[in-house]
Amino acid sequence: MKDVLIQYMKRFSDLSESELVKLTEDVPVAAFKKGTILLHQGDVPHKCYFVLQGCVRQYAVDANGNENTYNFFTEEQSVTIFNQHTPDKVSPYSLSCLEDCTLVAGDLSTEQEAYDMHPVLEAMTRKMIQADMGAMRDDFSSFISSTPEERYQALMAKRPDLVDRVPQYQLASYLGIKPESLSRIKKRSAASHLRIVD
Question: Which of 53, 101, 102, 147 is positioned for an S-S bond with 97, CB 3.0–4.6 A?
Answer without folding.
Answer: 101
